[in-house]
Amino acid sequence: MKYMMFVCTDTEPDTDPSPEADIEVWVEENDTRGRRLDGSVLGSRSSATTVRVRNGQLLVSDGPFAETKEFIVGYDLLECADLDEAIEVARAHPMARGGRLELRPLVDL
């Protein structure tokens, strides 16, 4: 099953002083195992453009639309047997401690 994992900042990161995992090691391990199909860091939120259509009018604004202190900073597309495996993959990601990871299954249309 495919999962989109959104990598987000968090206003309350983990306070455990032990060293965080190396992201390059996480990427290599999951690429080698075929669990990570794609992934990237996103450009800064100041480079975001929000597009909406309301009453037939195109509305384009600079920046993210969300009024929040947490932001999506990257993503990984995962291929896992089930949600339990996706959770284990996310658990080992360095941003699980410094931020938050949101897993969503992809739906075939």
Automatic annotation (TrEMBL):
InterPro entries: Dimeric_a/b-barrel, YCII. Residues 44-108 form the YCII-related domain. Belongs to the YciI family. This is YCII-related domain-containing protein.
